[in-house]
Amino acid sequence: MTFTAHINVMPLKELLDPQGKAVMGGLKNLGMGQVQDVRIGKHITLQIEAASKEEAQQIAESACQKLLANQVMEYFEVHIQ
């Protein structure tokens, strides 16, 4: 069975996000002062062939731990469909 894993990788909240700060400055310059904070991350979609949803979850998490996310600076969330 084929599952789709949707993975969000974001910088840890304790770390500065220079890209987010730059976008925040741009939004303020455009008159959008209502925006309080910006964090920039990445969204990754994997098509996984697995016997069960649980196995697909394990495969996706393993991919994140080994390659897709730098756990020193980022955290990830995996959602399987």
Task: Tell me what you see in this structure.
Helices cover 35% and strands 31% of the residues. Strands 2-1-3 form a three-stranded antiparallel β-sheet, with helices on one face.
Could you write a compact summary of the structure shown?
InterPro entries: PurS, PurS-like_sf. It is found in: Cytoplasm. By secondary structure, this protein is an alpha+beta fold.
Share in helix: 25-40%
User: Given the C-alpha coordinates, what overall shape results?
Assistant: elongated
Count of runs of 4 or more consecutive helical residues: 2
Unreliable residue stretches: none
Multimer state: single chain
Write the H/E string, N to C: EHEHE
State the strand order across the main sheet.
2-1-3
DSSP strand count: 3
Q: How far apart are the termini?
A: 11 Å
Strand content: 25-35%
Mean pLDDT: 96
Rg computed from alpha carbons, rounded to a whole number of angstroms: 16 Å
Largest beta-sheet characterization: 3 strands, antiparallel
Structural class: alpha+beta
